Amino acid sequence: MSPEDRLRDALRAQVDTVEVTPDALPRIRGRIQERRRGGGWAVIAAGAAVAAVIALAVVVFVPERVPPDRATDRPPGTSVTQEPVEPSAPATTAVPVVPGEPAKMQLPVYYARNDRLVREFHELPLPVDDDAHRIEASVTEALRAGSAADPDYETLWPDSVTVRGVTVEGRVVVVDLTDVGTVPRAGTPALAVQQLVSTVAAAASYTSVKRIDGVRITVGGAPVARLWDAVDTSRPVKQLHPSEIYAPMWVIDPQEGQQVGRSFTVHLAGIVWEGTANLRVRGAGGEVVVEQVVRLSVGAPAVGEARVPLTLPPGRYTVEAYYISQADSSVQGVDDHGFTVG
């Protein structure tokens, strides 16, 4: 036990022996008034007594434990007022400029896994490097079937959909589509729209726009009141709070298929109770080589993050992020990436 811990325990033990009556503070204040004519030292002593009572009250106060707010269990449609917060980017988002070749940029792309959204960063070509084309590149990639690097991720949009163009109108982004089909994949129209909106919002953070107020979706250049006759698109669609749409856990680094050095950092993000997550790394044969509890920067309903340095011998590995259910201690929200240590 450290000296600080011993001092804290000793102070707490002393506090536990003190009983403060309910009328202690009023009586002390009364004595102060009576002794004001008695000189400065009496007032100072009485003031010190007041401070001691207040300090004791603060020390012995123990807030009632708040029951866990498991954001992943929030009923659909429940509104959360906090501003959406985009998790940090991977460490490998810089793309070198090659003279004579079109500009390329690592841009965020959202997909779905188990009816929740997850994110990858893809190196995408930019015929013109401006705000609208950066957002358009991300959205086009997000809606393209089979574009995810992680085989567990997928787009919710039908194969027929294409992006005709993107325009930026202040802090509202207009995405014009064609061939949206009659239904999205997996029958999840609301989440499909949020996949698009989240991709736009994330890509906008890599432009001069930074933060958007909403996404106006048009089809064939014309407004559409209800997309797939299921989602209200008569006005700009806002991004929902991450706790309503993001996966409870995901791996940011290493990215799927990435090769890293022997010493590297695992970067996790999650929306879990008290920010308590779990990290596990398996070898090529499935054996567990690393397993530990990880404390994220913040708990649900906010997006927390953690960076865990590791050193492993060369080989093929799978990193897993997950959380333990408070209800039955089962493993939940697993996200995994395969990677290689070179």
Automatic annotation (TrEMBL):
Keyword Zinc-finger on this protein?
no
Q: Which residues form the GerMN domain?
A: 136-228
**Transmembrane segment boundaries:** 39-62
Q: What segment(s) does the record annotate as region Disordered?
A: 67-96
Q: Which UniProt keywords apply?
A: Membrane, Transmembrane, Transmembrane helix
In terms of InterPro entries, this protein maps to: GerMN, Gmad2_Ig-like_dom
User: What name appears for this protein in its UniProt entry?
Assistant: GerMN domain-containing protein
What is the scientific name of the source organism? Dactylosporangium siamense
